[in-house]
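Hi D.,

Good news: the full-assembly prediction came through. Inputs first.
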Amino acid sequence: MSIGTTEYSATVYEHFRAPRNVGAFPAGTLGVIEGQAGSRRQGREIILALRLDGARVAECRYRVYGCPATVALCSVLSERILGSTLEHLRAPMGLALAEELELPPAKRAAALLLEDALGAALARYNMTSRRQTA
Amino acid sequence: MSGSIYLDYAATTPMDPRVAERMAACLTRDGLFANPASAHGPGRKARAAVEAARAEIAALVNATPQEIVFTSGATESDNLAIKGLARFERQRGWHIVTSRIEHKAVLDACKQLEKEGFEITWLKPDAQGLIQPDAVRAALRPDTVLVSIMQANNEIGTVNDVAAIGAMLQGHSARFHVDAAQSAGKLPIDLKQLNVDLMSFSGHKVYGPKGVGALYVRKEPRVNLEPLIHGGGHERGLRSGTLATHQIVGMGEAFRLARESLAEEAARLTALRERLWRGLQQIEGVLLNGHPGQRLPGILNLSFPRVEGESLLYACEPLAVSSGSACNSAEQEPSYVLRALGRDDQLAGASLRFSLGRYTTEAEVDQAIEIVTREYTRLSALAA
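Then the structure:
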């Protein structure tokens, strides 16, 4: 039994208290790809949804179960990702975000999970576009 | 305590100003600064203050002053009781019975003895966190030298029936140690009526100073301990070191004040705790950890479904409460107490311990209900 001992940066606190773009797109919204990573059993779960306009991200929504760092990472990404090309999103960005948010080393797993969710969404896009090409 | 609502009295309590006043009078040249072991006048005065404090500790639990040994805190008291008894009695036996939900001071002292060759039986609590006397009976062996069971659990507040466990031990040669760090000053304790050989107390859980505690060591029949600290032979040779007059006087005053208001304060805290529980029970699926009735007046431990523990704790930040969450603790594991009760990792992690005390008001309880309900709703919506 203990009180919190993790010290978070002001940015983490700010996003954790007022996370941006939480939720999901209404069913049937066109151009949406979704990626999921983690599980509640493991202590963290992210379901990330991107609405694409051509090859660029027009909107981002997410649902998140996890520690304040996980929530803040999703919130920051949901703003940062707007206008990005899919090509740009393929570059790993989780650890850079973790560094930017000054997360302690023990919380890097949250950043990697976010990368996994993004990767899962992009994989879904690849599958869909292959199907459309075929 | 600007900005926060302190509901963590089981972790520690603010010192009562009346205690601080008594302590301050021991520190400087015009006070009781002399060494209580000195034979001169100032020494005798300090010694008289120490002995008066010892009498207050004894009075709270109906022991004799000669049965009270001052230590640096309940952790040392637990260590002295467990290691001291086991090492003294090792010619007689190598078996100890304790439970999995004892305070770390007891668990780690027992683990140390395990390394020294003792065998430990770690009893599992029942689903409500109680150690049943029958479970203790079943674990006893002819070579059992010690049974150590806490009176009240620090996380869930559940109160064991130490009277029944003690009675069951009548006729067995095992000694009975009870960690009463959480219960002393909160529940009536009558050591003349209990078959208890050793009992640990803390100063700072009862509005006294940190850094001082006491161990009750029964005189009749006599209990022998091997000391942990040597040098000078203070405290009947059980705990050497110059007595910290100011700490001891503070603890004595704190125990005196606790004795004066025990029944009244227990009733007030029970009412506040029930108010808090009624308010938070409105959250769907919230679970009470521990026994619904057999519990300390001031502790309420709840598990919250569908939210993550560390987030819940941080979201409720205006509240100073404790959590069973793994991410927050130095120990990267959810509460071992709640896991022992059968809660899964999520429920053990997403738990809050509210512990109310002398300065808790109804308004603070109502604010706590509002904050937890609002933040729980917000966090569960994030994951929906």
